Amino acid sequence: MKIHYALISMLALALTLGLTAFGQAKIPPMNIKERTLPNGLHVVSLQDNSSPTVSIHVWYNVGSKDDPDGRSGFAHLFEHMMFKSTKNMKSETFDRLTEDVGGFNNASTYDDFTNYYEVVPSNYLESLLWAEAERMVNLNVDEDNFKSERDVVKEEFRFRILSQPYGRLFGQYIEKLSFTTHPYKRPGIGNLDELNAATIDDVRAFYKTFYRPDNAYLIVVGDFDQAQFDGWVDKYFGRIKQNKMAIPRVTAVEPERTAEKRYVKTAPNVPFPAVAITYLAPESKSADAAALKIVESILAGGESSRLYQSLVYSQQLAQEAGFNADLRADRGLLYFYAVASEGKTPEALEKSLLAELAKIQTKPVTANELAKAKNQLITRTLQEREQNDGKASAIERAVAYEGSAAAVNTDIQKLQAVTVADVRRVMQKYFTPKNRVVIYYQNGGEDK
Questions:
Q1: Domains present along the chain, CATH in parentheses
Q2: For the segment 205-236, what is each residue's pLDDT rounded down to a tens digit?
Q3: Helical packing angle, 367-384 and 289-300, nearest 10°
Q4: Count of CB atoms situated within 10 Å of the CB of 9
Q5: What DSSP state is assigned to residue 40?
Q6: What's the Cα-to-Cα distance from 233 to each of 86, 269, 275, rounded to whole Å?
Q7: Which of 225, 395, 102, 116 is nearest to 233 (CA)?
Q8: Which of 82, 88, 57, 113 is nearest to 207 (CA)?
Q9: H or E segment at 145?
Q10: Interval 34-75: pLDDT, tens
């Protein structure tokens, strides 16, 4: 068993100092280095020679909100395509370059970005830099690869959305019914009809438009020599030509809600009814973001949280209850949800969720609740940053949601600065009746 001595030391410190430990502690910043190549590629590096591993992330400023009209799920489909062959690599080469040397690779598509990442022994860094540069510019986009990967994504949709009892609620309806204008209303996984409508020409146009150095960040953390690393980056990425074509950006703005809206949706495999109550959130750069993350922890941070203790443990209304502060680059969502216990109704769930909302709006949270939430979030952040890949992921999120890699060094301080008054203020500011969408989800026929 691997012992995380740094984490043990942090927890011991917390026990020694009490609940305010991380709420007051000064956390050393990451010593990141940044530069931009002539072709527009942003390079962020953090040298850490404490272990002989390295994490490589390539972050592209394109997500599911950038799906072409009538092609929802397209950015996710294209993510799969990026693991196929290139001019100088066979398909699945990334598996051979990583798994065969004891590392791993993966990718994810979010609403606002797509990321590709690898963790390998540090003596394989140069090989992965070459491979990432290769697929940035030389991907083979052919009919066979496209059709095979589209079938994979369609099967993923069937498994994650159609076959799961609450897949339609969390994977489709919350977004579709909560947004009226912004492309966030199109779920990132798409739907079968629009995936079927995609063509090979769509794929080629998407690749040419968004997969380019001036729309990407290269983030590398771990065991390397800075001068050697800079030389490799110049060698493999610096030779990629700059694309002069303009990058289309989402300009739609989700309007303020003016009145509560209510929906009832059904699916044929829902064993117990569920409820979701959504509110429009501020953009992720908002000064209120840290307070809303604290709220998420107080309401839904484990079995001692308010929602679990009230709806699940005390009232036994729900088998699951939670709250999510889904902050995005543009306006995201703040939403409560609950899945009923046997014999309980969606009306009872809604009433209880709104009662918990009223409590946190009208009566200040306690100092201990606030300190506990801060400790939960900061401990999770520090634990993630014990590993090179965790550091790279944190930098990546800072770029995506705050527009700057350097913001990775201010997120903990923002959490530490949140006050009891801040919590009450954001709850009263965003959680108003006119900013509310209520969704009842229950068993029934297929509801489109």
A1: 30-236 (3.30.830.10), 261-443 (3.30.830.10)
A2: 999 999 999 999 999 999 999 999 999 999 99
A3: 100
A4: 10
A5: S
A6: 19, 51, 50
A7: 225
A8: 82
A9: helix 143-157
A10: 999 999 999 999 999 999 999 999 999 999 999 999 999 999
